[in-house]
Amino acid sequence: MTKHGKIYKSTLSQFDRAKFYSIDEAFEILKTMSGKKFDETVDVSVRLAVDPRKADQMVRGTVTLPKGTGKIAKVIVFAQGDKAEAAKMAGADEVGADELIDKVSKGWTDFDAAVATPDLMAKVGKLGRVLGPRNLMPNPKTGTVTQDVSKAVSDIKGGKIDFRIDKNSNLAFIVGKKSFNKEDLIINFRSAINEIVRLKPATVKGRYITKVAISSTMSPSIILDNTQF
Question: What's the pTM value of the predicted model, to 2 decimals?
Fold first, then answer.
């Protein structure tokens, strides 16, 4: 059984956990909650009425948050030659081919995103055991397997996030930091939700988004009224 601290417990009295809130109300409550001394991350959890076991209902995508994520992502790039130089110029934190692949194969995952050129994917693909569980494997669908490594690095460092449905039909992603003003958090939130709606599989009928909750690193979840989406 999970034990929560005093701050977490004190926030429970600031809202009704049985109530469904509007977007504006939910972010207003989140902003007024007392928290830790560090700048907490604001997280969103979305449950979809899809079956992730079916290939045509696997929801996965990317979106660039207009107001950024509040952190500069650490990006590595699997590339060589001119592409490696382009990645370095774009601000990649580490660039390489065989030596970088070997480093990651030994369990190094101190980065937020990985990009690869198509010619190296045969080798990078063997890192699935390390990168797969952490959702760090480069993928053409998220723009992280590309010849334009410079753009990929710039996009990620500029606020691009990716999301993928898990086996329980949930999506989880961040929309910024608690220090952001409410309006900027809502702008980021709406951008992500709009992209998720756009990706609704054609085979899904009826209600698509069944639950949406927001929280910060140390706070309980606030449930949103999903009729808004």
Answer: 0.78
Which amino acid makes up residue 38? F
Dump pLDDT digits (tens) for 120-165. Answer: 999 999 999 999 998 899 999 889 999 999 999 999 999 999 899 9
pLDDT digits (tens, 9 = 90+) for 23-78: 999 999 999 886 667 899 999 999 999 999 999 999 999 999 999 999 889 999 99
**Count of Cβ atoms closer than 10 Å to residue 180 Cβ:** 21
